[in-house]
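Marked as duplicate of an earlier ticket. Keeping the data here for the record.
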Amino acid sequence: MVSESPQVIEHGTSRSGRWLHARRTRIALWTAAVEAIMVAVFHDVSRFTVVGLALVAVLLYWFGGRESRSDTFHQASWIFAVSQLLAVIAAILAFIVFWTAFIAVCIFALVALFFVFTDRR
């Protein structure tokens, strides 16, 4: 015999807020992934735009979403802030990887030049 316990709905939540809460991590990750791809592919979206948007998102969540009476707004602002912070991390990593690759190419070219100029036949 399976006993079903009644589901308790937390006071102050809404149907859409509960739906967003159950999926907020996935939504934030996918949003950040799409934004990181857009920054990488389309150079019209700069890293500074991503950082500025993240600042707006965090301020919106911090000053509005955390204490909001609307559960939906609370969850949406959390998703917005987290996705933008993850996009900033992706932009920073892309910047580091780009410069690391650029430095490696320069080192390889210098080593190749060294071998070319020191080759004495």
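See parent ticket for discussion. Helices lie at 15-41, 47-65, 71-118.
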